[in-house]
Amino acid sequence: MSKISKFFKGGGSAASKGRGGPSPQEALARLRETEEMLSKKQEYLETRIERELAVARQHGTKNKRAALQALKRKKRYEKQLNQIDGTLSTIEFQREALENSHTNTEVLKNMGYAAQAMKKVHENMDLNKIDDLMQDITEQQDVAQEISDAISNRATFGDEFDEDELMAELEELEQEELNKGMRDVRLPSVPSTSLPSRPGKMPACHFAFLMIKPCSSSRKRAEDEDEMKKLAAWAS
Question: Where along the chain is composition biased (Basic and acidic residues) (predicted)?
Answer without folding.
Answer: 220-230
